[in-house]
Fold this sequence. Notes:
Helix content is 32%, strand content 11%. The protein is α/β, with parallel strands linked by helices. It has a 9-stranded parallel sheet. It has a two-stranded antiparallel sheet with strand order 2-15. Strands 9-10 form a two-stranded antiparallel ribbon. Helix 9 links the parallel strand 11 (257-262) and strand 12. Helix 4 crosses helix 5, helix 5 runs parallel beside helix 6 and helix 10 (373-386) packs parallel to helix 11.
Amino acid sequence: MIIPTVYVVIIYCLLTSMIVNGAIGLNWGRENAQRLLPSTVVDILLQNNVPQARIYTSQPDILQAFCGSGINLTISILNIKAITNDTDIQSWVQKNVKFFGPANIRRVYIGNYVYDKINPQINLFEAHLKAVKAIQAALNSVGYADHIKVNLPLSHNILKDNITRPSDADFRDDLKPLIKETIRHLADKGAPFVLQMFPILYITENKLDPDFAFVGGGSRHVVRDVGGAVYTNVFEFMYDSIVWALEKAGAPSDMEVVVGHVGWPTDGYPGANTSTAERFFKGFLPFVKSNKGTPKRPGRSIDTYLHSLTDEPKNSAQQPPFSRHWGIFRSNGEPKYKIDLSGQGRDIYPAKARGIQRMPDRWCMFNGDMTNVSRVKEQVAKACDGADCTAMAPGGSCSNLNFMHNVSYAFNMFFQSKFQDERECWFEGFARVVSDVNPSTGTCVFPVEVVKGEQMNFGDRPSDGERLHHGSRAILLFFVLLISIHWIL
């Protein structure tokens, strides 16, 4: 039976009236060769009582999986080239309107990380803001003005550098006119400002006490600000910095600031590991759930989305190595560490995915042939070009391997990405398949892939510039940064 549009809107109004600010959500990116089925992801969210989620697509099969789940959903349009004119925009709306109510769609994000201070492209920001306005107008025209808000997610790098206290924060001069225009539009439509946070980067780039990263972490670094405000952790510091900048730019005092991305990576960077990620969320989630607010906005709840559900080993190589390791869950749907997604601070593992099958214990290993080391290195480069070797980056869990283990790790990552196809464990005769001994050593795990599920179709993925989670910082600068920083955690 086809439900008339008017009834869909009424049902949607009832659903959205039950939304409570300050909820904890999860982001689900799909830059994987092997991806969890959408139905499996919905099941994970429901098992763990996660009330909201953000996806980086508006793909119909994924929206269908969320229909009837009761989960508040944020969807994304990453490729704005697909919505450059009224015809394209109306086509997108008509294709997706049947999901707006049943899938409980609450927000639409246009782009992701559209401003990079190292390579600023003001015209890119302008194009995305234009798309925000156009999509919101199109949604309004089909009756969703009050129910779906269109946003432009932005990160902390839209602020001027060298902020020593939140009240000093202000937007970059080259961005101010566009930020003010963005604020006016959001305020007019009753939409929130969406902030994407990267605490680990902020701590390292500003050479702050590592303990300042954690709520209740006992940091030696304490920031005192106007009005008696005291900051003992980076989240409140970063959040209030944006609030102060918004105030200076003329934003209304009641404009909601949603945290659309915050988390802690588990590999590929100094301080990025499961124990530190567990510590980060152990203090942070009860803080969010308490609705305590921040020194600048006491007693205000903060709608927060954790990044991310799973790792994304197919994220662009232009991004720093840790960008592939945000996942709370492994590719097999098992949690990496303890985290209470309800925000109650309990010492528990979250419920894992059901129905996932692991492949046999088999690994692709270097056979030890050192007669031509240059050829071996060439094969390692080929393996890492097709698979995720970022755990071997400085500070990563596999950064202290010897040469033979490095080669084996690269070969195995490629072998597992091909679902243990023995033809993919050749590497010009330098590799062999083993099953008798697990080669994992120390902190470095040689993974075994899960049985084939849904496969990535890379033919329709957006360009790196449209998909980047962290901007296109040069990889060389990233490693220089790593070498210059020493973490004690």
